[in-house]
Amino acid sequence: MVVTCHFIDSDWHLNRRVLNFCNVPPPHTGFLIADALQKCFQEWEIENKICSITVDNARSNDVAVRVLKDIFNMRKALFASGKLFHVRCVAHITNLLVQDGLGEISSIVDCVRNGIKYLVASEGRLVKFSEIAKQLQLTSKKLLLDVATRWNSTYMMLAAALEFKGVFPMYSYIDSGFIWLPSDEDWDKVGNVCQLLGVFNQVTNIVSGSDYPTANLFLPEVWRMKEVLATKCKDENEYIKAMAYKMSTKFQKYWGECNLLMSIAAVLDPRNDTILFPYNLSRVGSYHEC
Q1: Among 135, 118, 105, 108, which residue's Cα sits nearest to residue 172?
Q2: Phi and psi based region of residue 61 (left: phi greater than 0; alpha: psi -120 to 50; beta: remaining)
């Protein structure tokens, strides 16, 4: 377990530090994680200076946060009675949203992925594929193989493959072992899905920045995702509607109630003085549209 911290110094510069690499032996229960974190806080003498903790949504992490919150509350060491303490990782929840949505075209994703696996497994195959791409004047991108658990790599794989959709059938003429050929309809679906996922990729890149404060960016970006999903829930394509509905349901689960820290950071950012009016700060995730 890696424990990091972020803080603003007296010169208003953003700082980030790795506090510790903790070996937490299995089973990784919430109580053991909380104990490891508490020891780290005590070692660094910051147990009374913790404002918030950001973790992914694993059940053991939720338990750990509750345990730590109870400990800090007993010492009256939490601001606003701990209302700002637990901040969910926006990038991780976005991953959960998109993974749910991608299930609607899983067979197409698998077809593209398996085809690329076949090609990248042999240098000779890649050379032949590249030669066809050059003949079609498609040299700006390369094939990418995704990591299935990372949705943004799947998005980049699909977006890159879409550029080569004309190469796949031509390559199959010279390699009878290549059988992964999405239909024109499948490629149309990939294109529409990439348009949707492009927004989520931009949001992930923005909120994952490490060289600038991001707390003030969460609310506008979460709102941006909400508006996109609300629009796509009314899309003319049934698979996009189904995908958006699945993602909206997951969105509502985690962001049905807006995190107070997200609201405070957004309000205090003077750049937001003209764009905060549309935000319902108490309920970012109302999905009556779906």
Answers
A1: 118
A2: alpha
What H or E segment, with its residue span, contains residue 246?
Answer: helix 238-255
Summarised one tens digit per residue, pLDDT across range 145-189 is: 999 888 999 999 999 999 999 999 999 999 999 999 999 999 999
Residue 259 in 3-state DSSP? coil
* Residues 215, 211: Cα–Cα separation, whole Å: 12
Helix extents (H) in 82-166: 90-102, 106-120, 123-135, 151-163
**pLDDT above 90: residue 45:** no
How much is the average pLDDT of 190-202? 94
Would residue 10 be called left, alpha or beta, if left means φ above 0 and alpha means ψ between -120 and 50 degrees? alpha
State the pairing for strand pair 2-8/14-21: antiparallel
Kindly report whether the global pTM for this prediction surpasses the value 0.70: yes
- C-alpha 108/C-alpha 117 separation (Å) is 14
Residues 230 and 249: their CA atoms lie apart, in Å, by 11
Phi-psi region of 141 (alpha: psi -120 to 50; beta: other; left: phi over 0): beta
Report how far residue 251's alpha carbon sits from residue 1's, in angstroms, rounded to the nearest whole number.
27
Which residues, 6+ apart, have CB-to-CB distance to 203 below 8 Å?
A: 90, 94, 221, 222, 224, 225
Phi and psi at 3, nearest 5°, equal -110, 120
**71-90 pLDDT per residue, tens:** 888 877 777 777 778 877 78
pLDDT at residue 24 tops 80? no
Asked if residue 270 has a cis previous peptide bond (ω within 30° of 0), the answer is: no
Instruction: Classify residue 78 by its DSSP letter.
Output: S
Residue 184 has what pLDDT?
A: 95
